[in-house]
Specification:
Order of helices and strands: HEEEEHEHEEEEHEHEHEHHHEEHH
Number of domains: 4
Number of strands: 14
Helix content: 25-40%
CATH class of the largest domain: Alpha Beta
Radius of gyration: 41 Å
Structural class: alpha+beta
Shape: rod-shaped
Number of helices: 11
CATH superfamily of the largest domain: Periplasmic binding protein-like II
CATH architecture of the largest domain: 3-Layer(aba) Sandwich
Length: 355
């Protein structure tokens, strides 16, 4: 006799006004004949769904499924499983009529019928903080991506991005740990799951590096194909849940607020960097003042040689501002940075040879 943990999800959520699904007489008889509907979940998928140590079903999915159960009038009985793989296996064997919170895939459609989405959430890439932004996964080099076993996105990754090496782990925690410890380059999880895991476990060397294009979590209730009427009734209950109610459920499960420890090493680096910038600024200003002084001196010297110079027509001496007559070479050298060397031009050389 299999061990079952009965959890009746029929208590209304606080602040909600129940909108029961209207059932026909034959549908009511069907529901009554079904009795408690068995349900398998992922016991390790917080904050979406998990099972605590006392066997209680918790998370965003638990709150939404409570609304569906209440409004459809169908009580749900939790079948305890060790992990998601076991839940899928028991569902295939018909031991669970319902999988309450999963993505629809071609493989799963082989034995399940699905309701409309009960909750939507984007898939994101999680990498270490030094990894660059991921805009298009197709442009990634041959890197490794780690995923928990049994996820719907595994097939999508393998078919769309064959250059990525896929590593499989048994749990969500192992996937995040492998990225944090550099045993894998990235993982890809739901945004809500990623934020929850990073903050709860203090993995502050991880970041959300981009969003998976064209693929987000459209989470639905999956029902065995042998019970189409059950799927139809649960689907009608899903449609009674308003966007406001979904928002209120999300708000009841915020990311865990973990205080970030003070990073003194980072503070020292910042202070050292600012100090270096100040020193560079001081040196630069000093050099700039020297260059300005040299430029001003050069401009003054240029201005000195501007205008009319009184020069002797016979000996070529130049009269200074003080009234003294000096050789033109001496005058120019005093007023500028120019120096003179002496030689004989070709014409003077010819004249010298004639003498």
């Amino acid at each position: 006799m299999r061990a079952l943990l009965a959890i009746l999800l029929v208590l209304p959520l606080l602040g909600q006004s129940p909108v029961p699904v209207e059932l026909s007489a034959s549908e009511r008889q069907y529901v009554q004949r079904l009795g408690k509907v068995t349900m398998c979940v992922d016991p390790d998928w917080a904050p979406f769904e998990s099972v605590d140590q006392k066997g209680r079903y918790e998370g965003i999915a638990a709150d939404l499924i409570a609304l569906v159960s209440e409004r459809s009038g169908i009580p749900l009985e939790l079948v305890p499983t060790r992990n998601w793989d076991e839940s899928l296996a028991r569902s295939r064997k018909g031991e669970c009529l319902v999988l309450p919170f999963l993505n629809k895939t071609p493989e799963r459609e082989g034995w399940l019928a699905f309701t409309e989405p009960i909750f939507s959430d984007p898939n994101v890439f999680i990498t270490r903080e030094e990894h660059s932004y991921i805009g298009d996964p197709a442009e990634l080099p041959a890197e490794s991506i780690v995923l928990p076993r049994g996820t719907a996105v595994e097939g999508w990754i393998r078919s769309r991005y064959p250059q990525l090496s896929v590593i499989i782990t048994e749990t969500e925690a192992e996937a995040f740990d492998m990225v944090s410890s550099r045993k894998a380059d990235m993982t890809m999880r739901s945004l809500a799951v990623a934020a929850y895991a990073i903050r709860k476990r203090g993995l502050f060397n991880l970041k959300i590096a981009g969003q998976m294009p064209e693929y987000q979590n459209e989470l639905r209730i999956g029902v065995l194909k042998t019970e189409p009427l059950l799927c139809e009734i649960l689907g009608r209950a899903v449609r009674t849940i308003s966007p406001k109610e979904r928002g209120q459920v999300r708000e009841r499960h915020p990311s865990i607020d973990v205080q970030t420890p003070v990073n003194y090493r980072l503070i020292i680096k910042v202070i050292a960097g600012l100090g270096a910038l100040m020193i560079v600024g001081i040196v630069w200003n000093y050099r700039l003042r020297k260059l300005n002084a040299r430029l001003e001196k050069a401009l003054m010297e240029v201005r000195t040689l501007q205008g009319l110079l009184p020069i002797c027509a016979w000996c070529k001496k130049v009269r200074s501002d003080e009234g003294l007559w000096t050789q033109i070479e001496q005058y120019v050298s005093e007023k500028t940075a120019a120096t003179f060397t002496h030689g004989v031009c070709p014409e003077c050389a010819k004249n010298a040879l004639k003498v």
